[in-house]
Amino acid sequence: MPLVTSKEMFRKAYEGKYAIGAFNVNNMEIIQGIVDAAKEEQSPLILQVSAGARKYARHIYLMKLAEAAVEDSGLPICLHLDHGEDFEICKSCIDGGFTSVMIDGSKFPFEENITVTKKVVEYAHARGVTVEAELGRLAGVEDAVKVSSKDASYTDPDQAVEFVERTGVDSLAIAIGTSHGAYKFKGEPSLDFARLEKISNLLPEFPLVLHGASTVLPEFVAKCNQYGGKIDGAQGVPEEMLKQAGKLGVCKINIDTDLRLAMTASIREHFAHNPGDFDPRQYLKPAREAIKNMVKHKINAVLNSSGRL
Ligand SMILES: O=C(CO)COP(=O)(O)O
Ligand SMILES: O=C[C@H](O)COP(=O)(O)O
Ligand SMILES: [Zn+2]
Ligand SMILES: [Zn+2]
What we know:
Elements lengths: L6 H10 L3 E5 L3 H14 L3 E6 H7 L1 H15 L3 E8 L2 H9 L4 E4 L6 H16 L4 E6 L4 E3 L2 E3 L9 H11 L3 E4 L18 H10 L5 E3 L7 H9 L12 H8 L3 E6 L1 H17 L6 H24 L6
Parallel strand pairs: 1-2, 1-10, 2-3, 3-4, 4-5, 5-8, 8-9, 9-10
Antiparallel strand pairs: 6-7
Helix pairs in contact: 2-4, 2-12, 5-6, 6-7, 7-8, 9-11, 11-12
The chain binds 1,3-dihydroxyacetonephosphate (13P), glyceraldehyde-3-phosphate (G3H) and zinc ion (ZN) (2 copies).
The site of 1,3-dihydroxyacetonephosphate has 14 residues, from β3, β10 and α11.
C-alpha cells in the first residue's frame, strides 16, 4: 500500500467518533517509535512534518523514512505537512510526494486566508492531495515563533462555515483554547466546548483538527526535572477534554510536545545512570521505546483509534 491521504481516515473517524493521531516527526527513531506503536495497535496514522523538521532532517530523508514505514508496517499512513506558511512550501511537499498538506493562513486577515487556502486546494486536489487549513489563531510556539495570547483568537463559527464553503478545504484546524508547546494554561485548563459544538453542528460530517493537543503528562516533566532538566510550570490539555473533542467532530489530534518530553526524559535518565555511555544507540534505543510507549498510550487513552484499520 502506498502513502494515503487523510480522506478515508477522517470519514471513518467521524463516523466512529474517534480521532486520528497526527504525530510530528524529525528523525528515524521518532518515526520508528510511532509506527511500531501504531502497528501493535493496528491504528491508522498521520506522520506530520513541520517546516523546521524539513529543514532539520531534509525532505528526501523524511519522505524515504515514511515510505519505509508504510512498507514495514503495512498500515495506512498519511504524510502531512504541518503549518505550511505559504503556497510554495505546500507545492514543494505536494510535488515531493506528501499526501496531505496544511496551509496555515491564520496570521492573515480572513479574505487573504481564503485566497491562499483556495490556491493550495486547487493545486493539491488536482494531484490527489488533501488540504487542512486554519481559522482562528492558536497561542504558543510555532517554529520558534511565539504567538502571544494577545495575538491569538478563537475561531468564529459562522466564518468557519463560509471559509469551508469558499475554499473547498478538506479539514479545518480551529482555535478553542489549546496552544502549542508545554505551557498551555496558567490556571485551570479550560477549552471552549460550546464553540466547538457550534462549529461542529454547523459543519456536519466535516473533520475538524485540534492543534496544541499534548497532555504534558506530569510524570515526564518530573522525570526531565529529576535528571537535570528545568521545565517549570508546564501544563497540557487533560485527556478527558481531548476524548470529548473526539466525539464532537475533531478527527485529527496533533501531538508533538508529549513526544519531545518522552524522548528527553528517557535520554536524561539514561545518561544519569550511565554517564560513561557514548554510543548513540545506547540512549536512542530506550528513547525510541519511550516514544513507542507514549504513542500506544495516546492511541488507547486519548484517540480511541486502536483496531480501526
Ligand atoms: O499542534 C501541534 C503541531 O501542529 C503540536 O501541539 P503540541 O505542542 O501540544 O504537541
Ligand atoms: O506546531 C508546532 C509543532 O510542534 C512543530 O514544531 P517545530 O516547528 O518546532 O518543528
Ligand atoms: Zn497556526
Ligand atoms: Zn500545530
